[in-house]
Amino acid sequence: MELRQLHCFEILAEELHFARAADRLGTTQSGVSRLIAGLEASLGGKLFNRAKRSSVSLTATGALFLPEARAILRQAERGETIGRRAARGEIGSLEIGFVASAAWGGTVSAMVRRYRAMAPGVEVRLREMETPRQLEEIAAGRLDLGFLRARADYPVEVKVTRLQLDAMHIALPEDHKLAAQAVLKPADLKGAKFIVPYFGEAAGFLVRIHTLGEAGGFTPEILPPVRDFLTVLTSVGAGLGVGLVPESAANFRIPGTMLRPVVGVELVSELMLASRRAEASPAVRQFLRLAGARG
C-alpha cells in the first residue's frame, strides 16, 4: 500500500467519477484504474462499485476505509512538514549552559531572545554551570551549547567561537583604602590578597593576576580558590580580599562591594560559545550561524 494509491483513492471517493479524478490527479483514467486496482489487491477487497451503466460508488469496505485512508494521508503530510521544519532548524530543542558572568552582561538572554525570534518552535532550556562542567557535558552530548570563559585547551570533541572580550575590573570591599579612587594602578594593589575561582588557572585568571603583579612590581598573594565569581564577590564583600572579575559583575550588585578599572595593563577575558565539533543538529547549527552574525 502506497501513499499515491491512498491519495488516488481519496480523490476518486470525492469525485465518484474516473475522468474528473484523473483530471485532478494529472493522470489518465487508466492510471487511476491501475492505482485503485493495486490498492484493492493489497487490501483483498473491492473499494468501488463500477457497474458500466451506473455511477461509481463506494462499497461498504470503501466507506469504512475512507476515513482511515484520510487519517494516514494527513499524518504523512504532517510528518513531512515536521521533518522539513526540523531539517531547517525551526523545531526541536536546545540545552544551553552558561557561566553566571555571561548572564550578568546580558549576552545569554540577548542571543537566546534573537534565536527564539528566528525559531519560535524550538524549545530552549538554560542551565547555569561553570566552564569545566560545561565542557564535560558538551563533549558527552548532554549539552548542546555553552557560554563559557576561554581557557588554554578544550576537549577534542569541542570547538569554540569567540563572542566578545570583557574588561576585567578589581572588586574591592566598599571600606577598602582604595575605594575612594576612580581608577587603580597596578602598584596600588601591592599587599592585597586575591580571591580567585577554582577554575581560575585553566581560564587564565591567575596569569592575569600575576601580570598585574609584574606591572605593579609585586608578587600577588593568592588565597585558596572558591567556587565561582559569585563566591569571589561575596568574599570580597565580607572583607576577605579583593577579586579580579568581569566588568559585567557591576550589574549583579553585591552589598559591600565595588568595582574599579585598572590602568596601565590590559586585563580582559574572552567569552566563548562552545559546541560539539561534529554537530548534526540543524537547531544548533542555526544558533551557531546567529552567533557568527552577531554584532
From TrEMBL:
Superkingdom per UniProt: Bacteria
Keyword Transport (UniProt): no
Any GO molecular function: DNA binding
Residues in HTH lysR-type domain copies: 1-59
Signal peptide: none
Keyword Metal-binding attributed: no
Keywords for the protein's UniProt record, in alphabetical order: DNA-binding, Transcription, Transcription regulation
Pfam families on file: HTH_1, LysR_substrate
UniProt-listed CDD domains: PBP2_LTTR_aromatics_like (cd08414)
GO CC, one annotated term: protein-DNA complex
Family, per entry: Belongs to the LysR transcriptional regulatory family.
Record-linked PANTHER family: HTH-TYPE TRANSCRIPTIONAL REGULATOR CYNR, TRANSCRIPTIONAL DUAL REGULATOR HCAR-RELATED
The protein's name: DNA-binding transcriptional LysR family regulator
